[in-house]
Structures are given as structure tokens and as C-alpha cells.
Amino acid sequence: MEIGALYKEACATLFKKFQNKEEASLEAYVLVSFVAKKDKSFILTYPEYQVSDDEIEACNCGSYGCLEQYTSATGIVRVTKRKLAKSNEETTLRKYENLTAKDVFDEAKAGDAVALDLVDEVCGILGKALSNIACVVDPEVIVIGGGVSKAGDILIDTIQKHFVETAFHACRETVFSLAGLGNDAGMYGCVKMLLD
Length: 196
Fold this sequence. Notes:
The chain is of the alpha+beta class. It has one domain (3-195): ATPase, nucleotide binding domain (Nucleotidyltransferase, domain 5). The protein is built from 8 helices and 4 strands; from the N terminus they run H-H-E-E-H-H-H-H-E-H-E-H. It has helices at 3-18, 21-24, 68-71, 73-86, 101-109, 113-137, 153-166, 185-195, and strands at 31-36, 41-45, 139-145, 175-178. Strands 2-1-3-4 form a 4-stranded mixed beta sheet. Helix 7 (153-166) links the parallel strand 3 and strand 4. It is globular and about 50 Å long.
């Protein structure tokens, strides 16, 4: 499939997902924009990219062990709740009645050890997945968008740390950046593509 067709397919998928903002916002999906060599750019969304064979809960897509289950905002909350249920470790995360991914990142920034471990865990999963993808597409830049990207430098730095640990040597210099348009980046790209 040529890049233009892939891009249009990704945009059509995102538009379908956005029809129900609560369940299908970019916050619930990992949006990865690759700016590939030779000025070609395209969007790949990998919410169903398999990262675990041990998952016992089904993903929204019906599969098990999808990237979305660990690295989306809802996935981060799910992983956090699991960890808190299995442990008696003291953490400020227990004070939240309605825990969000933002809370996890905020507490990690404040130095909470459990939150820091959780950020390292989920960013490790995403960094490794991106290193596998980078071996195929050899991007110059990986731009992270979606609601989770609001976490800022702690997100990018931790993903990049794990990416470099597992990436093919030719891909280790790949630049990581946050989407300048935040959670709306995918929508702007889709609209631009439709207008072209």
C-alpha cells in the first residue's frame, strides 16, 4: 500500500473513532506520527499492536495484550490500579478516588516512587514497541500526540531511554518530539489530508 493510501486509511479510522469522544478520543489511542526520510510523512496508529501474551483482560478491540491496554490514558490507569491492588506500598496515588493518567504523571514528577516505576513501565512498553516499528520505517522523527502527551518531558525522556536500549543501532539517533497541536494533531492532519 502506498504511503498516501495508508495515511488516508489511518485518517478514516481516526474519524470513525472520534465519533464517540469519550470512548475513542486520541487519549484512548496511541498516535504515532512518523516523519520518514525523503520528506514523506504518514501516520501510523497502533492501538492493537500486540505487546504481551500474558494479558487476561480483553482490549476494546477484542484482542489481548494490545499496546493501548498499557500506554493509553485508560491503559495507564488500568496498569496503576492493578499494581496498587497487588501491593501495599505507600504511595500518594492511593489518595485519588478517580485516578487519571495525569495524576500518575504528576505524582511521578513530584517524586513518588510507585508513580515513577509505573511511568518507567508503561514508557518501557511504548519505547520497545516504537523501536520495533523504527526498524521497519527508519524514521528521523517520532512525534507523540494524544492526551497522554500532555505529560511532557517525563514522557518523552522515558520513552526515548527505553527506545535507545532496544533500537537497532541505525535507528538510535531518532528524534522524539511532542505533537505541537497536542491532542488535536491527528485531527488537523486528517483534515489537511482530506483538503489536499
